[in-house]
Amino acid sequence: MKKRAIALLVSLVLAGSLGLTACGGSSQTAAVSSGVQESEADAEKEAESQGETDTSAAPETESSGEAETAAAPAADASELPDYMVYAPEGAPELAGNAYVGTLDVKYAKQFAVYYYENGYKIIEVSTEGDYLLVPEGADVPAGAEGSMRILQMPLDNIYLQATFAMALFTALDAQDHIKLVGTDVDGWTFDEPKDALQSGEMLFAGNYSAPDYELLINQGCDLAIESTMILHVPEVQEMLENIDIPVFIDRCSYEETSFGRSEWIKCYGAMVGKEAEAAEYYAGQEAVMEELNDFEDTGLTVAFFAVNTSGMMVVRSGKDYVIDMIREAGGSYSFDNVKAVAESNSSVIELSVEEFYANAMDADYFVYNASMFAPLTSMDDLLDKNKIFADMKAVKEGHVYQVGSDMFQATDRISVLIRDFHIMLTGGDESQFTFLTKIE
Using 50, 70 and 90 to split pLDDT, how confident is the model at 343? Predict the structure, then answer.
């Protein structure tokens, strides 16, 4: 595969089909090491400030690739493992291999996993199609090639661009499956990927728009896990697939609820053969969720925002999972009555100072989103951004908090942030905060 991929890569570059410098060489290595290539985390921040996530790049439709259900049922559905249910409706057909069961998923709507005889699995991702996981040493069933993306297990040399998935692999103790990443040391907010990069167990292989193809080939990369940012550079996805690296597109950011987002741990558990561990971990999260179900509406409003370099107020869409967490915690969103916020399909929206003031003047709490711009170190920092904050209720009452970029990479602990919001809203013990900090 390696010789073929290198030959194909060279021919593609010579043909100029992509207009890219595909092989890293010394010049690309220098560019990466000098920081010319941006990290995916930076790209995602930039995309957010420009109105990302961009649903026009990947419109919401039903999952593709569905076919008739395989005729032969499981030998005994009652003997299925705890993480699986017998629900054959909608399961794709796999020639010569009867349907066995479906991964038990409660909240996530953007993926499904189906199990078949002889160890085959199909991961179905909304709008992206089907991915067939082929057991080691097994053949690809007839008809699968061309209709599904083929992932040959075991997947031990993954290139991870979707940074929020790293926490899920880490929670499964499966980060050793990831050998290459699209975010360098400084872009991570928790220790495991930082330590692995510093020790050489993981390698930085360029960001989503400019991966180091030569490094990927030399390291035997067997899968690229990408965020939907890859949809903005289709030539990169094409190049990866041309050098025999299948591309798996993570759509957890399109989940309607925060719980659905964190349930993607089950998808990755299926990918690396750790379904039982994923189910056990998620059950622990559900225990916290049961506690959250008892949270009543406090009647208090929260303005979740940041101020960009142009002085515009950047807020989250009313459909965003962070806003969903505020509601789960018993709060309401200050900008729900702003039409652009309520109806936007983008994750973030810019508001004028006047519109922000009109809707957040009487907000009970401010939560500053420091994942996008420089964090606040004091209340003076906030007032330096705009003096109007001094006249607003949350500032006058000292109810200003902040959340950092670590929240967005902590996909495995979303329920903990909901609990942080609830502590804030109810005047609880702030020493128990995990992600929130109070601005004095």
Answer: confident
Give the pLDDT confidence score for residue 171 in this predicted structure: 92
Whether omega before 53 lies within 30 degrees of 0, making that bond cis, reads yes
Per residue in 209-263, pLDDT (tens digit) is: 999 999 999 999 999 999 999 999 999 999 999 999 999 999 988 887 878 888 9
Q: Tell me the whole-structure pTM to 2 decimals.
A: 0.71
Amino acid letter, 52: E
Please, what is the Cα angle at 370 between 403 and 205, to 5 degrees? 105
Q: List CB contacts of 294: < 8 A, sequence separation 6 or more.
A: none
Instruction: Give the chain's largest Cα–Cα span.
Output: 70
Q: Which two tokens stand for residue 422?
A: 């609830």
The pLDDT tens digits for 187-214 are 887 889 999 999 999 999 999 999 999 9
Partners of 401 in beta bridges: 367, 438
Give me the phi and psi of 254, to 5 degrees please: -95, 0
State the Cα–Cα distance between residues 370 and 327, nearest whole angstrom.
Answer: 20
Give the C-alpha separation, 122 to 131, whole Å. 6
Q: Are 236 and 230 in contact (CB under 8 A)?
A: yes
Domains, the chain, in order of start with CATH, read 60-153+255-293 (no CATH), 155-248 (3.40.50.1980), 295-438 (3.40.50.1980)
- Going by C-beta distance under 8 Å and a sequence separation of 6 or more, which residues neighbour residue 280? none
- The strand pairing partners of 333, in sequence order, are 302
What's the CA gap between 169 and 183, in Å, rounded? 15
> Which secondary-structure segment (H or E) carries 225?
strand 223-226
In DSSP notation, 253-304 reads: GG-SSHHHHHTHHHHHHHHTT-HHHHHHHHHHHHHHHHHHTTPPP--EEEEE
Q: 239 and 299 in contact (C-beta within 8 Å)?
A: no
Structure tokens at 383: 């007032």
Provide the residue count of the chain: 440
